[in-house]
Amino acid sequence: MWIITRKAQHSIWMRLSLSDSKKTVINIAGYRRFLLVACSVLLVFILSACQNSRGVYIQKLKNQHYRLMVGGRPYIVKGVCYNPIPIGSNHEYDWWSDPHKPWIADGKLMKEMGVNTIRLYQAHENSKEVKQVINDLYKLYGIRTLLGDWLGFWEYPCPFYGDKKFQEKVMQQVTEMVSLYKDEPGVLGWILGNENNYSCLGHVNPWSSPEVDSEPDPQKQKLMRAKIYYSFVNEISKQVHKIDPHHPVGLGNGELVGLDSANKFCQDVDFVACIIYRGKTFGNLFKSLRMTFDKPLLMAEFGADCYDAYLKKEDQNIQAFFLQSQWAQIYENLANNKSGAGNCIGGTVFEWTDEWWKHNSDDPQGWKIQDTESSWSNGSYYSDIRAEGNKNMNEEWFGIIALGAELENGINKRIPRKAYYVIREFWKNPVIKKTPVKKPR
Amino acid sequence: MKKLLVVLLALTLMAPVVAVAEDKAAGPKEFVVYLDKNAKDNHYIPSGWMGDYGDIKMNDQSADSPHTGTTSIQFIYSGKQSQTQGWAGVYWQNPANNWGNKKGGFDLTGMTKLTFWARGAKGGEVIQKVMVGGIKGTYPDSLMVEMGPIELTDTWKQYTVNLVGKDLTYVNGAFGWTATADLNPNGATFYIDDIKFESDASLKPEGKKQQAMPFYIYADRSSVVNHFIPSGWMGDYGDIKFDGSSKEDAYLGDTCVKVVYSGKATQGARWAGIFWQNPANNWGSVDSGFDLSLASKLTFWARGAVGGERIEEFKVGGIMGEFSDSDSATIGPVLLTKEWTQYTIDLKGKDMSYIIGGFAWSANVDNNPEGATFYLDEIKFE
To answer: Residue A198: enclosing H or E segment and its boundaries?
Structure first.
């Protein structure tokens, strides 16, 4: 292109130089300017095309807001956490190889609702099956997949993030996943870990290292563990970017805990994927993140259960009420909304279907009944906090789709709850109010 | 001339009708809670005795210099903690002893304030708070407004509770007061008179006011500047002994907080802690957070009885409920020393505009197998 231009320019110059006029010089200067502008436009076009072909990336706007771009267009993650365990099975069930392909029926319902993304916590070991799920959902329904990795969080006896061998093992696992699926058109991005940061505090799966053990001050120990963990995630993120520059990498994180350390040691992730259970409001979450770790925020896990532990009965109204309020806050904090922090890129609500195994994962009899016993307490879900011992969170009742015992096309019947319809309508017409919804009746 | 007379006559006849209509449109200007013993306008009865009710003596026809009329109500609060609550109070209810189980409240829509007169026998008596509404039950009050603490003088003074913008459609607990033994270690004798709801069109709604700094949680046992109540006992609450007036080497003033955590895991939780809340026992169900936006840090002094006690977390905010704290901040784990040491929770960048849970600590058995005794003092937002 450049050579042709130079040739053409030379020929014109030669022709014009023969006529020898002042006007000619001016014309040549004008032509040069034209060429310069044309080239600039072309360059912008090429760069833009290159960016589009990058697939999925995050754009920082002039007003410092963040938005997710897919195929060159803004993309709001309207997602669900997906783990379709049937009644009578537990988390070890291999739904990926289920001949009835539950994701086909689920994808149809999801599409009708407006879901554009699912979040999977961990890919199955059979890559052919994983590709099948990702491709079916994308090709049939346009639903993309956020693929995650636990980063060895559940390894026995605990995740030794300070240990080189452990790190290498996890690194290899993640890079293999990325290499296997990066070219699938349905992949939206990667999420590293879930609530692994709590292990740095010793709350869940506590771990240590000789270096940490030699420090007597427990507060410093906590910071040392956070440094080790987030530095490691940063290394993984760098490696993922090398293998796959076309998809963003998210840091799975419980609440905002530890993100001041992530700010120092984990700058190479593209977004934070937070797990938040704060009832009807996320409070100051969005602004707080701006202050501590200025990255785009995906609400990777949030929601409400639909069982009233106080009245001991299903309550679809309160679930719908909380979820609509939560989605309204997510939308309020998307890019270019003046009233919000502008750092949210969407959410994946927990969760698509109920999971009947969760209350007691070791009891096969328990997997066949939907347990109503609450396992933990959270005052943010105030409607049933007066339950005995204040235990009001019912793990087996978080689905926006209930499971029926009867089979339809070989899988448990899908029964959409009120929240399904409420969110569907909200996505169609997202009205954001400060006090988003009336109390349910 | 005749016509003029007819018009004048008509106007004369019309005038009272118009006046009545105007009156009717304006509605009543006041609604009496208590004026004088046996006053026909009294609408409520001081029947709702709470907390250490054994500490209260009431004379509802005290003739000792009433504000108006012939009587006022005298309360003698001993502060002896007869029911071991540490506080006591009285609600004016309708009918008597109605804790929301009967329908008896009045629709007071149109009233914009409650006023009352009060004085102490000596001056310096502290009413922790006064309340309008707030009784729950099957027939709950439609509002809950609190004001306080109030330090009384030995002369009559009028106090006003602003009710502009509040829902007064159902008011059973018209007025109430509480006093604490901490704020009145030697008891308190005080008088209340002329309690009434009033309609004052000129009154503006009370905005959420930003609290000035420093804002104390604990200064001294009976300090009127204390805020928040150490009511939120968590985990193995049976493992905790709390003394808010320990005289064992206070850092400043006469007293400090002493906590004895036995670590016996009485409730099986293997951890315990206390939240300082506003009001007492508010886990986010009552809309009563303080606006502490001006605070950039919370500081406190702490020491262990022997040194080495490990507190897992000191915390500001983080109560989540229907009315959640606007943010939270923590430090910990902290290893205490035998010497008083000042600790700081940094609040820069935090949203402190709505705080119900002012301060909290938590400790666990694993790190304190023999339990822990520790002291706290001068807890304040700055």
So the answer is: helix A198-201
The count of domains in chain B is 2
The tokens describing B282, both together, are 């508010």
Q: What are phi and psi of A51, to 5 degrees?
A: -65, -45
Choose between B357 and A17: higher pLDDT: B357
Please, are residues B202 and B362 in contact by the beta-carbon 8 Å criterion?
no
Numbered residues of chain B with Cβ closer than 8 Å to any chain A Cβ:
283-285, 310, 319-322, 324-327, 331-335, 349-351, 367
Chain A residues touching residue B367 (CB < 8 angstroms): 218
- B277, B355: one domain: yes
Q: Could you tell me the pLDDT band of residue B25, with boundaries at 50, 70 and 90?
A: very low
Q: Which is it for strands B72-77 and B144-147: parallel, antiparallel or unpaired? A: unpaired
B221 & B311 share domain:
yes
Domain that holds residue B344: 215-381
How many angstroms away from the CA of B351 is the closest CA of chain A? Answer: 7
Cα first-last separation, chain A:
69
Q: Measured between alpha carbons, how far is A68 from A70 in angstroms, rounded to an integer?
A: 7
Q: How open is the CA angle B74-B199-B16, to the nearest 5 degrees?
A: 120
The CA distance from A4 to A290, in Å, is: 50
pLDDT value at residue B105: 94
Structural contact between residues B237 and B267, judged by C-beta atoms closer than 8 angstroms: yes
Between vectors from CA A23 to CA A20 and to CA A29, what angle results, nearest 5°? 105
Spatial distance between the Cα atoms of A85 and A66, rounded to a whole number of angstroms: 35
CA-closest candidate to residue A207, choices A257, A265, A252, A154: A154
Going through B199-340 in order, the beta strands assigned E by DSSP cover 215-218, 229-235, 240-246, 256-261, 271-277, 297-304, 310-311, 313-317, 328-331, 334-335
Contacts for A18 with CB less than 8 Å, ≥ 6 apart:
none
Query: Distance (Å, rounded) from C-alpha B174 to C-alpha B132?
Result: 5
Whether the pTM exceeds 0.80: the reply is no
Beta strands in A318-358 (DSSP E): 344-349
Give the pLDDT confidence of B285-302 residue by residue, as tens digits: 888 899 999 999 999 999
Among the partner residues A218, A287, A378, nearest to B320 by beta-carbon distance: A378
Establish how many alpha carbons lie within 13 A of residue A313's alpha carbon, considering only the half-sphere containing its beta carbon.
3
Inter-chain CB pairs, A–B, below 8 Å: 53
Query: What are the distances in angstroms from CA B330 to CA A102, A114, A219, A393?
Result: 44, 39, 11, 25
At A325-336, the pLDDT tens digits run 999 999 999 999
Joined together, the tokens standing for residue A44 give 């912008």
Query: Which chain A residues touch B335 with a CB distance below 8 Å?
Result: 217-218
Q: Where are the domains of chain A?
A: 2-43, 58-428
A58-428 folds as TIM Barrel (3.20.20)
Q: What tens digit of pLDDT does each residue of B78-94 get?
A: 999 999 888 899 999 99
A287 vs chain B: nearest CA distance in angstroms?
9
Select from B237, B271, B309, B322 the residue whose CB has the most chain A CBs within 10 Å, as the one to mutate to test that interface: B322
Task: Report CB contact under 8 Å: B283, A288.
Answer: no
B77 close to B189: Cβ distance less than 8 angstroms: yes
CA B41 to chain centre: 28
